# Entry
Amino acid sequence: MDHFLYRDGRLMAEDVDLAQIASEVGTPFYCYSAATLTRHFRLFDEALAGMDHLVCFAMKSLSNVAVLKLLGDLGAGVDVVSGGEYARARAAGIPGERIVFSGVGKTREEMAQALEGGIRQFNVESEPELLALSEVASGMGATAPITLRVNPDVDAQTHEKIATGRKEDKFGIPIARAREIYAEAARLPGIKVIGIDVHIGSQLTSLAPFEAAYGKVADLTRQLRADGHEISRLDLGGGLGIPYTRDNLAPPLPSDYGDLIRRTVGDLGCEIEIEPGRLISGNAGILVSRVIYVKEGEDRTFLILDAAMNDLLRPAMYGAHHDIVPLVEPAPGVEYAPMDIVGPVCESGDTFAKTRSMPPLKAGDLVAFRSAGAYGAVMASEYNSRPLVPEVLVHGDHSAVIRPRPTFDDMIARDIIPQWL
Ligand SMILES: *Cc1c(COP(=O)(O)O)cnc(C)c1O
# Structure
């Protein structure tokens, strides 16, 4: 559920009229609901009640510092995947002991940055990374707390580009080699093994792949303990899916996910970490855009918006579906007609939807892309020299711009013409 609902025929973000924000900020813009972010974080936190746990928001899904501050103040940790994300987490006031560092390609500079600033743990994904981390930590007179990310060879049955737990995927170490690599880790001077990490993919709509993966993690925990390792923490990754349409099958609830965790690994006495991204941020955000033209093509109608693939990449990148609704609620009984909904970028890939059934719309009308909070603004670019899309956060009847739209001058000022030109 979210907090973007019609009230008196107008789409609201909590208690704020989205058309009002559009008139102040211009379009396109992202808008996030603090109440939805809070609610989704708490659902996970409550789902793990009774177990020693930390919910680490996967900030690659939505990394605005204001959003991180909001979640951090609720007690969230964060999962970061780059030095830039680490710096954002710290800028939001999140202490190092609540930051976990994931990713297959951590550089030595990023390792040193996190060891220097404080880190809960590194989720290490390969032997070369393990060796590099040991060297960096020893060189600093430090010890790096780690889990090894194991690849359980489980098919998450999700989109090809976001499945991560099969043996052909680039992530983690093969679970069959885990005992050998843990033995190696235990011998390294700059490393302290504290647990196991697993993350099998994103937008999972069934609990079965989690169950298979966590069962393997439980077996591995017992095996590694028998080998003499202290396994006190399990990082179970993120990946729980969200409904992108009103009428699709409801994905599993965080509470059912929590029960599954209790059932599969709850008796091991480990501290539990999870790294949800999309389920916290996805339905907490929308993208608002204005209709520029309604163009009658030869065999179809094109709705041309002022938002484009550079603002919201998911449809072009994953073929993703977003519900698109007018800011003025359609009157009951109006006739819907199929339209292709496109942006102004000079690529045919800049298409948000084909033959989408839409109520009557005309130039100047406002529409909202639902479920755009995750992997939306963070993937935006300035392709076609379209200034980076702004972000707005709403809380009750308050709203604030949390990232302004750059001016053309801001955008151009980043380029430098060399003296010799
Ligand atoms: C992307 C990612 C997540 C979050 O995935 P969601 O599907 O957004 O919940 C968590 N952990 C890791 C390591 C990731 O790469």
Remarks:
- The pocket of pyridoxal-5'-phosphate is lined by residues 58, 60-61, 79, 102, 199, 202-203, 237-239, 275-279, 374 (CB under 6 Å).
- The domain at 34-281 is CATH 3.20.20.10 (TIM Barrel).
- The chain has a mean pLDDT of 96.
